Amino acid sequence: MSRFHDLTQLPDARGHFGPYGGRFVSETLSFALEELENIYASLKNDPEFQAEFDYDLKHYVGRPSPLYHAERWSREIGGAQIWLKREDLNHTGAHKVNNTIGQALLAKKAGKPRVIAETGAGQHGVATATVAARLGLKCEIYMGAEDVERQKLNVYRMHLLGAKVVPVESGSRTLKDAMNEALRDWVTNVDDTFYIIGTVAGPHPYPMLVRDFSAVVGREARRQSLEQIGRLPDALVACVGGGSNAMGLFYPFVEDDDVAMYGVEAGGEGVATGRHAAPLTANAPRGVLHGNRTYLMSDEGGQVADTQSISAGLDYPGVGPEHALWKDVGRVRYVAADDNEVLAAFRELTLVEGIMPALESSHALAHAKKLAGEMSPEQHIVVNLSGRGDKDIHTVAKLDGIEF
Amino acid sequence: MNRIEHNRIDQRFAELKAQGRTALIPYITAGDPAPAHTVDFMHACVEAGADVIELGVPFSDPMADGPVIQKACERALVHGTRLQHVLEMVAEFRQRDSETPVVLMGYLNPIERMGYDVFTRQAQASGVDGVLVVDMPPEEAGDNAALFAEHGLQSIFLLAPTTSEARARAICEHGEGYLYYVSLKGVTGAATLDADAVGEQLNKLRRITELPLCVGFGIRDGATAAAIGRVADGVIVGSALVGRIAEHADDPASIPAALKSILGEMREALDREAAG
Predict the structure, then answer these.
(1) DSSP state of A303
(2) With left for phi above 0 and alpha for psi between -120 and 50, is residue A26 left, alpha or beta?
(3) What is the DSSP string of B153-221?
(4) Which residue from A292, B210, B238, B265 has the fewest beta carbons nearer than 10 Å?
(5) CB contact under 8 A, B140 and A287
């Protein structure tokens, strides 16, 4: 049996992953979380609910997404074979929609006419606005004012989808502040509102249910590896902000002890500079934010640190609690890729394979390139290409001195 | 559990009960608008009739607070106010006031980062009486509540209109000092409240606990204080005071008088209500 079998039995009844996770929220939200926990518990193993979820993933999202062999890029690197799990080909262009489909179904079952969400890069906001449009739910998206500026395209997409985008001016005006504001909205409108959290963080049961909805990625990748490679891959690589796409890819492989896993955090200007968003790589101290205990970047007085990353979607000072545990037990190695490495990978994949990756996913690509170079051509790496890069053209063009 | 016999909070509520009076509990954010003023503000509150002081520990991500207290946190943090400094402020306050209970109110992360052992020891030494951690419900308090108790720190918990009866029972069982009833769904500083509805909720709670029931959220002047005073054992006033501090942030010397004016009006209204 796998020496990591215990990891599949988590969280415990109160939402803890070892010392991490939990439900650290103000009292007003406790009942809503208990309600969500009960609804999910009643539906989790309900074949009808699962069938509805699977149907939507197939016919609305377009699953399964391909596992693509990046032959030319692998050849150029001259090491291991790199395979891309093409979540960029999903409807709305990223893995985020897997989770929002699932949570929207829960909102419907809970009878809530309104959904809210936080978003960084805008991918989760777009995915939420999309399912809200389809189900006729009222939708408000909280987005840091700085992110509204650097992700204008997604802001307009959400607007077209009928969602209201609320720029958040407080704090560092990025993802964490958007989450604060979404929590404030929820505490005020808890009777009629469902909060669709976009990552494997937040209070219990969110880390668990976002993981479960995202794990379709890893289940497919595992099956596709067996079919296309003829065996399991040697390594998996995915970027980690809150950690939902990495969790989705990794989780179904947890008990495959021979499959190495690498979570790639946002190195920003370099982990050594302190200007990054890599709490696991930097061994940030334990802390509590947004309802869970985890590795959290904060100053000595416990004030949450400002983070730095070229990608809005990874610009977050904490990380999902299950990743925190996986670091401690050594199941996954967490590393960082800095902004320059990320941009290089973005350009390289676009030129060599004709696939333009999201800057978030480019973190995974940057590390996969390093890793592949140290491996042999008989070995295989599966990278989660979690989203497409159209939304980032504005950012990259600006670095090239071009304004549209 | 190992409790200090004469906890200031219990003592204060016993006195109030004997006098038939309602507790007036101001909240201010430590370090707002600058750390040098906080102790003066605390004394001003007591002079205006405060029975307990809730001293806010500023936090970068005050998720349960509205814009007024968010901004107060930002002003305090700009000046570098950290938990360590807040404890020093309480110690300084204690040099002149050994009787008024002080409750620290805030979020868990500053305590987590300082370390629970260090925090409880220093808080006790500084003269803190109670701790209200907004994002630490009883089920997550675990060993911390016992550790707090060992150091004479009472754990104050929140109750909300959304709290189920089963949860309310559990919370009342763990709660010490008083219970903070959040009168509204929402963040601090939000909308107006319905005193009758609050009263109804409090009556239900009185069947399961003997702890004093104090109400926060939505109390802004003498009239709202008096209306809540009719049904509660204490009224907590936060955003209304912090808003006043913000208005006078450019002239901190004028703030004690401003605090006294608003608290004085509430004190008078509460005592008139109690006498009537």
Answers:
(1) P
(2) beta
(3) -EE-EEE-TT--HHHHHHHHHH--S-EEEE-SSSSTT-S---HHHHHHHHHHHHTT--S-EEEESS--S
(4) B210
(5) no
Cα torsion A124, A130, A134, A136: sign: positive
Q: Which DSSP category does A64 fall into?
A: S
* Burial profile B13-27: b = 16 or more Cβ within 10 angstroms, e = fewer: beebeeeebbbbbbb
| E-only strand ranges, A97-227 | 114-119, 138-144, 164-168, 193-195
CA pair distance A149, B146, nearest whole angstrom: 47
pLDDT tens sequence across A21-58: 999 999 989 999 999 999 999 999 999 999 999 999 99
Amino acid of residue B104: L
What is the Cα–Cα distance from A288 to A321, expressed in whole angstroms? Answer: 10
Q: What is the DSSP string of A106-141?
A: HHHHHT-SEEEEEESSSHHHHHHHHHHHHHT-EEEE
Q: Please provide residue A399's backbone torsions phi and psi, each rounded to the nearest 5 degrees.
A: -65, -30
CB atoms within 10 A of CB B183: 28
Residue type, B80: G
Does B268 participate in catalysis according to the annotation?
no
**What six digits make up the tokens of B34?**
């600058």
Q: Tell me the pTM.
A: 0.96
Closest CB from B66, B82, B158 relative to A301: B82
**pLDDT tens digit sequence for A314-323:** 999 999 999 9
Contact A187 B64 (CB under 8 A): yes
Residue B141 is which amino acid?
A
Which residue intervals of A260-338 are DSSP H helices? Answer: 321-329
Beta strand segments in A187-307, E: 193-195, 235-239, 260-268, 286-289, 292-295
Whether the complex's predicted ipTM surpasses the cut of 0.90: yes
